[in-house]
């Protein structure tokens, strides 16, 4: 048991909900910052009576002093993630950047020891390198031809690092997860788990040839905890990826082996790179695949393993546990 208080923003999301549960299991006191008190925590019907709730919005300075009062650590998960591209990319970029800076400023004033900022692999590996190898030294080019969400993650993370360099503490550690899968907490389906649901319901009979990293949400939270506590994590970023990159087609094969009764629903065909590029002109859903150009990236998790002793679950486990939870919650017809 510990008396330390951790502030979690974005607890209505998949990672934030798992984060609150893990912190409570570890004996921490938890405070949640939410735009509306009734929003609750992902996976719970209401707010756990062991959790304090403060109303605070990333677009306003109001109440952030109350949110960080007495807090030792902050996990800042809140950031816009729309299911469809915005008409104006500043709708994503401005709140992502300004929200991170607002949280850092409040944490600095309150004497918070360390902020763990979940960024994204979108800030690392969406400027294609010829050798296809990516680690924490890589950055996506924010002025390149990338989707608005990816640009928002680059801009927000770079702004956070610059803010700490210019103004000093709190200590900052950044986690850059690849595609996050694993047990679904409630009916609100994330973008990644939505891919598994689409594969199991026949919603993607043909898929683009696109390879991406996979990580289990429970391992993402475990990496947050290690990054919060380890002295060597201060001032560092860590990629969260379970293992070798996979594709939507390969993911379908994993699901077909795990749930044979769904085998006829998973995709049997991949689009060619040329078809992806042509389709991306009119279909925003194909833009990622077009940007990556069919490359099979080699994404390193060596730093997290070496520095923090992190040991993620296998890729297949993250995918099959996602499917099992979707079925258990009735989010995929049996």
From TrEMBL:
Where in the sequence is the signal peptide annotated?
none
Question: One Pfam family of this protein, by short name?
Answer: Epimerase
Q: GO molecular function of the protein, one example?
A: oxidoreductase activity, acting on the CH-OH group of donors, NAD or NADP as acceptor
Tell me the SUPFAM superfamilies matching this sequence.
NAD(P)-binding Rossmann-fold domains
Q: Which residues form the NAD-dependent epimerase/dehydratase domain?
A: 6-234
Checking Gene3D superfamilies in the record gives: NAD(P)-binding Rossmann-like Domain
Q: Which UniProt keywords apply?
A: Oxidoreductase
The keyword RNA-binding is annotated on this UniProt entry:
no
Q: Which InterPro entries match?
A: Epimerase_deHydtase, NAD(P)-bd_dom_sf, NAD(P)_dehydrat-like
- Family of this protein: Belongs to the NAD(P)-dependent epimerase/dehydratase family. Dihydroflavonol-4-reductase subfamily.
UniProt-recorded name of the protein: Dihydroflavonol-4-reductase
Source organism lineage?
A: Bacteria, Bacillati, Actinomycetota, Actinomycetes, Micromonosporales
